[in-house]
Amino acid sequence: MPPSPVVSREEWLTARKRLLEREKEFTKRRDELSAERRSLPWVRIDKPYEFDSERGKLSLGDLFGSKSQLMVKHFMFGPEWSTGCIGCSLEIDHYDGVIPHLAQRDVAFVVVSRAPLEKLLAFKKRMGWHIDWVSSFGSDFNYDFHVSFTPEEVARGTGCYNYVTRPIIDELSGRSVFYKDEDGAIYHTYSSFGRGGEDMLGIYRLLDIVPKGRDEGPGGNLSHWVKHHDRYER
């Protein structure tokens, strides 16, 4: 870590106030971007999807429960995988305490993966999570929302991810948002992928304000340091 200059408290305060103005501007710009995000047009979802859950077979509409808004975490866990993605696991570690608060704001939260339900539930138990996790195995859901890829795409090495054609593997991460109106019609309102998920990771917000920052290595990839939370050396 390159050393920062050491200055007097008065000089530090001058520099801090200068940075504070930029931070305030960033906050205002983020508010504007959030409003623009919410004003995106919607796409009606008429295609039926079916999910395996602890309560049996569920439709996309069932995932809302009593809520009108649904947030889906696309968790990387393929049918042949023996364990869940480390990065997705880090994201889920942030959510258990938030889900009750989301419910008070009319938001249901569900994790979706293609692995069979028994694998998902076993991993959920190991990690100590309380999230709702369903399997989309046998459904087109993951493919239609561009987080799972066909054998042909994997063999080719490219597919549509984050709205462009790029290198892919069989499973990738993301999150999608849906709305259900009073008549039961469902609309897709938003999806984000790649670094679009960083705002969900509170640990990044914390690391960004300490001297060493994220310190993720030359590739800037969380896989260089993140492990499943029960696999860190004590």
Model description:
The mean pLDDT is 95. The longest helix has 30 residues, at 9-38. This protein is of the alpha+beta class and 234 residues long. Helix content is 30%, strand content 22%. The strands form 3 sheets. It has a 6-stranded mixed beta sheet. A two-stranded antiparallel sheet has the order 2-3. The chain has a two-stranded antiparallel sheet with strand order 7-8.
Helix content: 25-40%
SS element count, helices: 7
Q: What's the β-strand tally?
A: 10
Strand order of the largest sheet: 1-10-9-4-5-6
Note the gap between the termini: 25 Å
Secondary-structure element string: HEEEEHHEHEHHEEEEH
- Major sheet size, sense and barrel closure: 6 strands, mixed
Low-confidence stretches: none
Share of residues in strands: 15-25%
State mean pLDDT (0 to 100 scale).
Answer: 95
Please state the overall shape, judged from the principal axes of the Cα atoms. Answer: globular
Structural class: alpha+beta
* Spatial extent as radius of gyration: 20 Å
